[in-house]
Amino acid sequence: MSNTDWTKPQRQAPAGLILFFGDNFRKIIRMFFPVFIGVVLHKGDGDNTVLYIWAVIILLFLVSLSAVLSYLYFKFSIVNDEFVLQKGFFRKVRLTIPLERIQTINIKQNIIQKILGVVSLEVDTAGAANAEVKLKAINYRLAKELEKELKNSSDKKSTHEPLPKKEDDRIILKLNAADLFKISITENHFRSFLLILVFVNWIYTQIKDFYNEEVKRLAKEGMNSVEKLDFSLWIWLFVFMVLVSVMISFIRVFLRYYDFNLSHAGNTFIVEFGLFNRREINVPISKIQLLEEHINPLRKLLDFRTLVLKQASSDDIKRKQAVAIPACRKWHLKLIESIIFRDTGSEFTRPLYSHPVYFIRGFVFYSLAVLALSVFASEMLIMFSWWMFTAVEFVLAFLFYLAGKKRSFRFNDVLIQITKGMIGTSTYRMASFKIQGVKFRQSVFQKMRKRAGITIYTASGDELNVPYIDEKQARDIFNYLLYKIESSDKPWM
Amino acid sequence: MTSIFENQKISPEQLPEVNEHDFVPLDPAYKRYLFLVYSLTTLFLVAGAVAFQYFSRGTGVCMWVYVLVYVLVLLFFIFNTLLINAGFPLKGYLLREHDLIYRSGYLVRKITAIPKNRIQHVEIRQGAIARMFGISKLLIYTAGGSRSDLSVPGLLPEVAQQLKEHLTLSISKHE
Predict the structure, then answer these.
(1) What is the pLDDT of residues A26-54, one digit of tens each?
(2) For B146, which of A315, A473, A483 is closest by C-beta distance?
(3) Which residues of B touch A486 (CB under 8 A)?
(4) B122: part of which helix (H) or strand (E)?
(5) DSSP A436
(6) Across the A/B interface, how many CB contacts are shorter than 8 Å?
(7) Is CATH 3.30.390.10 the right assignment for the domain spanning A16-157?
(8) CATH label, B92-174, candidates 3.30.1490, 3.10.320, 2.30.29, 1.10.10
(9) What ranges do the domains of chain A cover?
(10) Fewer CB atoms inside 10 A, N or C side of chain B?
(11) What does R_g of chain B's alpha carbons equal in angstroms?
């Protein structure tokens, strides 16, 4: 199948020239931004137009030259089981990555790359942060070939996984437009709502600077009419805001997750999604450390849940390494779990709940914050009422009550599971042998009450907390988790 | 309260326990080191307070504000001294067959365990002040991010070296 000789240094696709040009141009603009502003704002005495035109021409020439040089001197090859990358004209860089160190290969395409008919290919390695490789412009067929080449050779070296490799990808999940619509309707609209508020506020301040007087007058009239507004108008306003929020969510979800599909091939999950920014991400199953499941009440009605796969990573690239599956059903989850954990273990223990003191403390803390804010607000605003404060307190109390009812820890002989949440519910599952460290924590107050907490450290950089449980149970869990890690010789990555 | 382990194959009695008496205390020089470090910090704070008093002359700052600042600095010093005294005997490490455990904290007691088969690499560090006291610090890195990395301070250099060699050996065994 492979008809490219990878031992010879390869260049990127010629379309890469345009990308390099764009990149360098952007860099230059960013670097000289203050100068441009200065030039534009500066009203000199003489006419300097000719000078400016020359400056721009020289600049464009230099940028093109550097683009051509970076294109010509950017070469990659595979020699002696090492991926070799050479780049740079003035400062030459030669990067070699042993193929067995390669963790994942991701193919991505943004809108410009789509127009140019190229994709970018990123190679992630374990640990070494400086050894990250990004090819910005190669054509899709070549990218696929290279991916295969890199994968094959890296699998040859590290064969922890005894599973037979299947050639065909098994599709687990596809999301169509209707699914995306449902996802966006059941989003947490509070966030979009806040976005709108921020946006409106921004526009308001922009306008205010220009039309100070009129705005003041209008605001005053507005204030009067706000007081005159009857109830139905408030409802219409609310409905309008909700509609806008849903629309924003819909656009966001649609752009991000268009044509989402998740498949399973050999030892990896392959996730593809995005409309303008098309991405293909490979997730090696052995690298998955933590599986998160998030449900909100609306999504529960649809049997929709969001999954997040957290991979092993160093701190700085943590955010990049989480792969979200925006919606799937219970049986998808079961399937994915059985693939990740292989053996999902025996029946779970009964849940172990945190002591109410933990949530009461949280409630008191937030109440004090709200109280402080309220005192401040009552000084500043006329419209403030203590009824509002009381309502907020009741909502807070209810939320912390829900949190206390949900927060629990349970385990079986393979997995641990932590559940938490207030209105929604989040569940965290991981194989207990993949834990990296355990901490037992007890304050003097907890000691008096014979309580303690456990913190579990994972290789994805997440910390799982089991706060305020019975001291004896905490000790038992501490010992148990250590036993599970230490008695396992399976590779955690 | 019934144990969460009731329907499990394994019962907590079968598990190896962490015995509080087995912890190896840190070298007493570390206590003196801590006193010195906190005294120096206090000196800095005093210098800051003096500077504040000097530069705010004539701006109408109430005398009680200065008193408050000095009292706070004094309280900081007393509090830390008491805490070092009370907390030092609790600090210690425990090397077991399969893991390294470090215990610390008086107000909040913390017991952190890193299994040997999860250690990424081990390092010995010795700052300028620590060198004066002849103590080193052992740093143990895991893949769990910086928060789960363990540092065991207050070790005699030869002890730190022994621990490092022992742990490094077990890393290579697990690979």
Answers:
(1) 888 888 777 777 777 666 556 777 888 88
(2) A315
(3) 98-99, 115-117
(4) strand B119-125
(5) -
(6) 126
(7) no
(8) 2.30.29
(9) 16-157, 184-257, 261-354+407-486, 356-404
(10) C
(11) 22
